[in-house]
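Membrane dipeptidase, pasting as requested.
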Amino acid sequence: MKLFDAHCDVLLKLWLDRSLSFYDDPSLHVTWKSLQQAKGKVQCFAIYIPESVYPESRFTVALEMVDLFFEEIIGKFSNMKFVRSKSDISSLGANEIGAMLTLEGCDAIGESLVKLKTLLRLGVSSVGLTWNHANSVADGAWEERGAGLSDFGKQVVHTLNEAKCWVDVSHLSKKGFWDAIEIADYPIASHSNAYALCAHPRNLRAEQICALIKKNGVIGITFVPSFVRQDHHPATIADVLRHLDYICSLGGSRHVGFGSDFDGIDETVVGLENFQCYANLINELQKHYSEADVQRFLFDNFYERLPR
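Structure tokens follow.
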């Protein structure tokens, strides 16, 4: 089974602690070794700028994370290949792993389309418009104001359309989501779950899921425990599968995948403690779905929606 994981935060951890090794550091959820063992095929690596970074330094930090991506992930492992398109992925050898660069939140670009275009030219293939709070593009899911896309934000989406780049609606406010879904050619939600099962502001309502399906997008079910279940019981793989079942019940069997958020979380779902534990998820999926469905969820649905 090939795996396409639409979101992890390894670059943030590597940036925060330069002593960490991507090879097999036990403090990382995603490592070269775990990708090898779990047969990961494509892993998306997010550029996420912590809010503690001063605004004037955020673009520089984004460039530092791009450098870490090429030096510590692509540069040190001969079978880690930089990918941006379907053809790049289809050209991967049997033992090669594709590494895709994404941007989580447009805080790094401020109000500059030049900075956005620079990151796209450096290889960013998916752009999340916000994190949880407001920036110059839109309001995030935790912003009390709940505003939608700014005029600049609409320019950002049009720029991403022209570049054939995914517009990632995870983290957007509700109004921001609807503004983006109206004008984005290639929308996805890289790491969000179903609000009907867990009423967290980062999760998607049924009508949002249906809108993404209608726009031929993909929803990456995420392993953030607080997005998986609301009560104080530990989140389990069975709970993750309930979100998958729900999205499929809305007609999303060809529009759902996984975006773990590994290395962006402190707590983990029981049985999904790191990337190697994808094997546990696959075992459970195979009990309930056909092999063709399981392969679609794990890989095909995201792969087939790549704009390039």
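Note for the archive: Strands lie at 3-5, 40-47, 80-82, 97-104, 124-128, 166-168, 187-188, 219-221, 256-258.
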